[in-house]
Amino acid sequence: MRRLLVAFGLFASISAASAADYELPTLRGAEAVAPSASACCPRWEGFYVGGQVGYGVASVDFRTSTADLVSHMLRELALENEANVSSWQVLGKSDTGGGSYGGFIGYNIGWENLILGFEFNYSRTNFSAGAPVSSISRVTTANNLIYDVAVTGSASMRITDMATLRARAGFEIGNFLPYFMIGVAAGRADIARSATVSGTQTDPNTSIVVPFTFSESDAKEGVFIYGWSLGGGLDVMIMPNIFLRGEYEFVGFAPAWDFKTGAAVDGRTRSVVVQTARAGLGFKF
Fold first, then answer.
1. Span 62-91, pLDDT tens digits
2. pLDDT at residue 42, as a whole number
């Protein structure tokens, strides 16, 4: 009996020593299958692509969109030179809403939890706005003549495409990446507008009344408009290479192109503001 106990003791000692020498995983427990630290957090660095849908509101300012048309019609006339009829605002502002769809592609660079990157974002849109009209009739004088003048007009804009190239800055919080963005914007729109000036010219010395009517219009499809963008959003990694996105973007476009002079006329046409909320799904390489 005493020899049996000694044998069991020697066997247990040898088994423990052998396990220690070979570091058997059966003696390491859960530590042998514990994930590494690098596998617990997503990698936001690198290229990514995705698709998106959204809904936005476009605010279009038509108030001075007839100004250069009237100025061109009445050029070198005393009625324009002295009464400044082209400054009479007969159109107003208009808001319109619509859906959009498109895609994005970008690249991220990471410094610890700070994620910086660039992204190109495109949306196909259909924002159609028409100007509210408030015709103006006034009696004025110019070159010692009396004018009874009426000014009216119309304008419309349909934005068909929008794209932004923006810089992004985000902060990684596990699977979440809240970000801020700022960049430049370009859009494509169909534009139409017209203006009419009519009335009578009366010579007070002879009482001769001369009626007059001037009308002018222009229309253009696929006009490029340019501006800037600002916004923010949240990317959420739901799988190792798949993320969901929600974002808000504000885009401000400069006045549209003046086709008659071939130059951008500040304040002469319409300015546009587009605010869009989007949801998207992306793939990170």
1. 988 898 899 999 998 999 999 999 999 999
2. 56
Q: How many CA atoms lie within 13 A of 1 on its CB side?
A: 0
pLDDT band at 55 (very low <50, low <70, confident <90, very high): very high
Task: Give the number of other CB atoms < 10 A from CB of residue 91.
Answer: 25
Q: Using 50, 70 and 90 to split pLDDT, how confident is the model at 147? A: very high
Which amino acid is located at 57 in the chain?
V
The DSSP line for 215-276 is EEEEEEEEEEEEEEEEEEEEEEEEETTEEEEEEEEEEEEPPPPBTTTTB--TTTS-EEEEEE
* DSSP codes of every residue in 87-137: G---B-EEEEEEEEEEEEEEEEEEETTEEEEEEEEEEEEEEEEE--B--EE
- Mean pLDDT, residues 47-54 taken together: 98
The residues spanned by each domain of the chain are: 1-36, 46-284
**What's the pTM?**
0.77
269 Cβ contact partners less than 8 Å away, ≥ 6 residues apart: 64, 65, 68, 255, 256, 257, 258
CA distance 182 to 276: 14
- Was domain 46-284 assigned CATH 3.30.1330.60? no
What are the φ/ψ torsions at residue 89 (nearest 5 degrees)?
A: -95, 115
